[in-house]
């Protein structure tokens, strides 16, 4: 929000997240008292500000920690982009579960170069959507959001601003 400075140091965020585990657990349980749509509206405003202030290309931490699901059409598009056969691409970069779900076979992701995505224009829906704070259903997804809170500056700062705005903390 105007005047807010945001924490982007990954070590600081991880250490603070560890100290705030109990507080976040209380915050999680407190969310059931809020109207979901009003909460989403508030989160979207906060997220837009935080997202505009934080440069993901200097972070890339989600690409080091997430298992990235990838759909069949995305595999086909990537094969064309990389000038590979789909079979060769699958062999090199993709793992398939017994249920038929496909995902990038390394964490960190193969396509991370430094802190940036080397296939940025072709990155997958899951990459584009992370950390999912622009979507409805913040309250229902908050447990999952908290899993990434220690690793993602956008999540960390959005949640911290939200706690202050809801007067959950000073
Ligand atoms: S494809 Fe790019 S954006 Fe997606 S996880 Fe890999 S490096 Fe990150
Ligand atoms: S989404 Fe979060 S973890 Fe991923 S690059 Fe952006 S700030 Fe870093």
H and E string: HHHHHHEEEEHHH
CA radius of gyration is 18 Å
Q: Total domains, how many?
A: 2
Structural class label: mainly alpha
Largest sheet: 2 strands, antiparallel
What low-confidence regions span 5 or more consecutive residues with pLDDT below 50? none
Shape: elongated
Q: How much helix, percentage-wise, in residues?
A: 40-55%
Total beta strand runs: 4
- The N- to C-terminal Cα distance equals 15 Å
Could you describe the 3D structure shown?
With 170 residues, the protein is mainly alpha-helical. It folds into 2 domains: 15-63 and 131-165, no CATH class; 67-111, no CATH class. Helix content is 53%, strand content 6%. It contains 9 helices and 4 strands; from the N terminus they run ααααααββββααα. The chain has helices spanning 10-19, 21-30, 36-53, 61-65, 72-81, 86-93, 125-129, 138-148, 153-165, and strands at 94-96, 102-104, 112-113, 116-117. A two-stranded antiparallel sheet has the order 1-2. Strand 1 and strand 2 (102-104) form a beta hairpin. Helix 3 packs across helix 9 (153-165) and helix 5 crosses helix 6 (86-93). The longest helix has 18 residues, at 36-53. It is elongated, with a radius of gyration of 18 Å. The two termini are 15 Å apart. Bound molecules: iron/sulfur cluster (2 copies). Residues 63, 68, 109, 111-112, 117, 119, 123-124, 127 line the site of one iron/sulfur cluster.
